[in-house]
Amino acid sequence: MMRFLIVTLLVWNLFISNGQLLAQEIGDTSQYEFFVQLEEGTSDDTIEEYLEDLNSTEVWSHGSSGLAVWKVTSFPFTLSNGDQVLNINDVIRQSVRKTKITESNYNLLTGVVDSTDTPTGSCFDPLIFSKAQGTQRAVKISILDTGIDPNLSASSTPTLNYNLTNYTGFDYINNDDIPEDEHGHGSHIVGIIHSITHAISPNESYIEFDIRKTHNALGQGMMSNVVKALLDAVDNSSNIVNMSFGLSDTFSLENFYPLRVAIQHALNHNVLIITASGNDNKNIDILDNTTLPAVFPDGNIISVAALDCNDNKSTFSNYGAENVDIGVLGVLIPGPDSEGGIRYASGTSQSSGIVTAVAALLASYQNNFDPSILKCAILNGYSSVDTLNGQLLKDGKININTSLPIYQNLENTYTVSNSNDTGIGSLRYGLEKVCGVDAIIFDQSTDGHVINLLNKSLFLDRPISFTGNSQNQTLINGVNLPPLIIGYNGNWIAKNLTISKSGTATSTLINNGKISIEHNVKIK
After folding, report:
1. Dist CA 179 CA 170 (whole Å)
2. Are 392 and 321 in contact (CB under 8 A)?
3. Which of 32, 55, 240, 517 is the most buried (most CB within 10 A)?
4. What is the pTM assigned to this prediction?
């Protein structure tokens, strides 16, 4: 049977069809189109040979990522080996048998669903999330959505600035340079971002907008449009990409996801991705509940939960102590409507827009754009919220006022000078409150001392070294918890240290990345 995914921004569902074609007027080509990833250096002659054998033509290709979308001309057809191919499922199976095709997968139909709320009780104030634009560099935001209303500025009020008239972009639905919004969701997200980035500096132009229309008037589009738009945004020098959507699908590190290949391409080009966690009120740390790309373990993704006006997780927002990074307001957020008025909507889509705006403002304060450092500043500048403990990776909400000094005061080396769990000089402070650090050094004052981690484990998701003093080892001890959790992007290099645990902790450390032990390290 043919599989379709409906991806929604405010309502998210996953279903398997009974072989029925969706209405052709929405441009559903998923029964004929498929992704392939080709080995680097695959010759044009080999590609033409594969296309002919698979009765296909090339829709588009992207050289450096190896991704391409091919379209079957018609069914049924017969391969050169005599096998008959009846449907797209057979094409997927046959294509991965080709020597130079490393992966193959479906081109899924995606859809966005928008909603409107009553404004009663709205607590959104763009000034809470805003700063004057920095003057260190221009920052380019790409927004992958339903496009932008050309009359967006008509909705502006004295407190909501939607006066965006200068932007670049592309329409992947109509294949032209005018990404006009025929749905409304994209304009709402663009309006939220612009209202924050230009709340204090209304006439400054250090924040550039790039609008990429990937979904049509019904809010539906192909994953090939999303992937191509992301690759194009990266190749056109975007710094931050807003993707206020997600797929309800089971994630496995072994599986091939074209969207993840595009996100990894973005990582290799120093691009930060802001994405929604989803609106199913589910724990997406659980395998059957995962939302893509929020749970992708790549270090250039920030996944966002929606909070209400009391800083509690909203009734609809997904959550997860491992896979949802941070929260921000996502209830009753005003944005422009298609008639020049103001419309209120709720969702993790709106929350992602707020985080995108904050990220862009912060980035304008540094000459060099580094997504890992920007992510570090956003996540470690958070304001703690007790009710979010155990629900998010950072149990709190974003705070641009505390993130900015973290982003401006970077250090390559941090010295641990005391044995406290928190505060300046502590190990935790160096990992969670200082960005750019790639080396932790333990002062002689910590020799023979025990650093007790009392409240939560230390999470390492980047290459970083710990070097103790050679005279007497420093003991890092987790009290009823593992002292260290090494993420998929982490590379922990250790020397002259002892790592231990006590109480009810079931493990000394959790390693999903890489460990390099130089010498004189004990793990008890």
Report:
1. 5
2. yes
3. 240
4. 0.90
Adjacent-strand bridge partners of 492: 464, 515
Q: How confident is the model at residue 470 (pLDDT cuts 50, 70, 90)?
A: confident
Q: Exposed/middle/buried for 176, CB within 10 Å: 0-12, 13-18, 19+?
A: exposed
CB atoms within 10 A of CB 344: 21
Closest CA to 475 of 446, 518, 504: 446
pLDDT tens per residue across span 17-66: 323 333 344 578 899 999 999 999 999 999 999 999 999 999 999 999 99
At position 431, the amino acid (one-letter code) is L
Q: Is 19 helix (H, G, I), strand (E, B) or coil?
A: coil
Q: Which two tokens stand for residue 502?
A: 């006590």
**272-276 vs 109-111, strand pairing mode:** unpaired
Residues 6+ apart with CB under 8 A from 296: 251, 257, 260, 263
DSSP character at residue 217: T
In which residue are the tokens 């997200």 written?
A: 189
Mean of pLDDT over the chain: 91
């057809």: which residue's tokens? 77
Q: What percent of the chain has pLDDT over 70?
A: 95
What letter would DSSP give residue 54?
Answer: T
pLDDT at 1: 31
- pLDDT (0 to 100) of residue 446: 86
